[in-house]
Amino acid sequence: MHDHSLLDLESTYCSFGDTVHYQEPPRVFSSCSGSFLYDESRREYLDLQMWYSAVNFGYANKRLNDALKAQIDTLPQLACQYLHKEKIDLAARLAGHMERAHGVKGRVQFNVGGAQAIEDSLKLVRNASKGKSLMIAFEGGYHGRTLGASAITSSYRYRRRYGHFGDRALFVPFPYCFRCPYGKRQDDCGLFCLGQFERLFETEYYGVWDPKVGEAEFAAFYVEAVQGTGGYVIPPRDYFPRLKKILDERGILMVDDEIQMGLYRTGAFWGLENFGVTPDVMVFGKALTNGLNPLSGIWAREALIEPGIFPPGSTHSTFSSNTLGTAVALETIKMLEEEDWGTMVREKGTYLLSGLQDLKRRHAIVGDVDGLGLALRMEICRPDGFTPDKAMTDWLVDEAMKCDLSTGGRSYGLILDVGGYYKNVFTLAPALTITRQEMDLALTLLDQLLERAATRTRQSAA
What's the average model confidence in pLDDT over 374-381? Predict the structure, then answer.
């Protein structure tokens, strides 16, 4: 069946509610390998977003694919009310990492997607706080689009047509130093934004704290160590340690959303580990199965999740700890334990960030670049280097998908993901297995793309 027939069928029979139609016409892909996707004409596209960091270990990773095939041939299905070895071993390894790295005992439970695991965490913290339903979250934060998760996601767009199911979070500014909401400079601000947050607890009349009983109205603060959809914004190193101290002193739990940044995306096993902070609850997913099967989960401190506090049946999903997902995830964790992924990712990230900084020096529309491990950002601005330029960002995405960028006698497409508060940031999440040759290719293609933008600007001004 040809592409145009498939697109005709899609436009007639598929809901658009589960698909983002960025390109017109949309692309139809037929195969994948490593860092590349291929369309039905076998044109190749270098993927710099890897399914929003879900495919950290490259498309069609043989070892992980083989783990899935082996499980299909042994125990492909089992109701999650029963036990199987892979689930238990996986939970023990994840909890074991927290014990070794943080000295904290806890437990793990599973679900099928990031938003569903966020829902589980909301139940957990409401239960622990004796039913408090109010949460704190960041401006620019994204935690999912289920009704509960969208209440702690800062974008009103995800709630607008559905009303509220429960209480919307209190959103406070993230330390987005390139676009500081307070107009401060990072080198002399003294983390002013954190001081403004702590100010909320100075008196009962700021609306969150009862000093007579020493109790906050809020159960938990949902954080991302590096903002994902918000544009891969990286905070100052001492921000999270100071935030955790403020929360601990007020009895507010910290819930760490590692769905996009976990499993060495940032050069550490969990993103928050870059800042030396141990959360009370952690949510994970995406790269756990390299995109081969939906699986997510939460880890929580023993006091919050032990069976006497959070008993059997507190949450449930038919496919929550399915055998296929846990088998692949277990192989993923084994892979991570066998090699020094932290060093490898940090070295690759340093190399790519250096290349992005060179592009920034040579292209006026690149306003900011930054990175932590292989979570990298490139902010597209007007020639003043600061004003967000969404229109140009969208044009660059479309231009990259034409598959006519060329080097070495071959043509390529470039798959870019757009994030950020103003939708002007390329959030770059290449495969952790990306090679030096592929990184050089990425920088060459980005350079060509930015040069096309400069030519377009000059022609428009002529």
Answer: 98
